Amino acid sequence: MTTELKKGLEGVLVAESALSDIDGDAGELYYRGYPIEALAEEATYEEVLYLLWNEDLPTAAELADFEAEMREARAVKPGIIDLLQLLADSGERPISALRSSVSMLSAEDPATGSDPTDLEAARHMGRRISAKFPTVLAAFDRLRRGKEPVEPREDLGLAANFLYMLHGTEPDPVDAEIFDKALTLHADHGLNASTFTAMVVGSTLADVYNSVTAAVAALSGPLHGGANQDVMEALLEIDEGPLTATEWIKELLDSGERIPGWGHRVYNVRDPRAKILESELRRLSNRTEDCHWLEYLEDLETHLTEEVGLPEKGVAPNVDFYSGAIYYQLGIPLDMFTAIFAMSRSTGWIGHVLEYQADNKLIRPRGRYIGPDRREFVPIEER
């Protein structure tokens, strides 16, 4: 039997999902039928998390119960802090520290070892992971800077609580709201590499901790996570160097290097999340009276659009183009950006694992053999 090779599984349908829908030609994104613009503007990240794990947005009572469960699960045990100190002392990257921590978190969860078909046990694990990720990341960053971790508070939302634990002071409400929107925008995006990795592991009926550990590892690769860090590093280079943003991008184009924050495997037009983040960056910049990062990005986009014509070729700004500058202005270290992505995307990973395991089939693709023809074995003394 001969079949067409689709390297990287590009364009291959491997599963059905009700979580997110992407129209790459129209530049539209929906979570369970709701447009991303409405969710980013009107819903909290916790509401979106509930939506992706269930079939609809929560009622006020459902949200209150859900938030209470999440907030009670935020704290981590001393053993996790000891592990984070060890990882910080060894110079691990935040994304690697997060991956190791997920495995450790499973050791303190009584639900570990539950029947893999027990949906409520899987949801319980998912709530613990999503609740503890902000605590783990904030603690790791403080430990590597020689500071004591800040205990989570139960009176703050997930986004505000992360910023509080990271900096040790309660964040400005606008900062917390903008970060909350950024988390919503990154929560799910179809069967990207890390989500598919989580599903492959979940299809073996491994538990949620194992699936999320694998997904974090997939996200750590530079071809998946890290683009917003690349964008911010480019902006810092422009800010510190002799070239204007336009001169810098011309040199980059002449060298043939990839443009960070531009182009997407699914979108042929501007990523709808980029439009929202541009607006939020403008809001943040106006509040802080520091607009130069926004101005650099606008100059880059203007040149690439009007002079180079990249959008006409199906290459346009993606979600990473503006998110890095937002995180940077919120005081988040550059090497934390990919881990922040994981913190948000864990929502989608868990949602897809829950969905797939409800009607599970082991994911087992085939590979085309291109090795030697059949050969006879030669004993070692005759070789």
Number of domains: 1
- What fold name stands as the CATH topology? Citrate Synthase, domain 1
Strand content: under 5%
CATH superfamily membership, which one?
Citrate Synthase, domain 1
Instruction: Order the strands across the largest sheet as they lie in space.
Output: 1-2-3
Q: Which radius of gyration do the C-alpha atoms yield?
A: 22 Å
Number of helices: 16
User: Could you give the count of β-strands?
Assistant: 3
Order of helices and strands: EEEHHHHHHHHHHHHHHHH
Tell me the distance between the termini.
35 Å
Shape label:
globular
What's the CATH architecture name? Orthogonal Bundle
Structural class: mainly alpha
List the helices and strands and how they pair.
Layout: E1 20-23, E2 28-31, E3 34-35, H1 36-42, H2 45-53, H3 60-72, H4 78-89, H5 94-107, H6 119-144, H7 158-167, H8 173-185, H9 193-202, H10 208-219, H11 227-240, H12 245-255, H13 272-288, H14 292-307, H15 320-329, H16 337-358
Pathway: Carbohydrate metabolism; tricarboxylic acid cycle
EC number: 2.3.3.16
Organism: Halodesulfurarchaeum formicicum
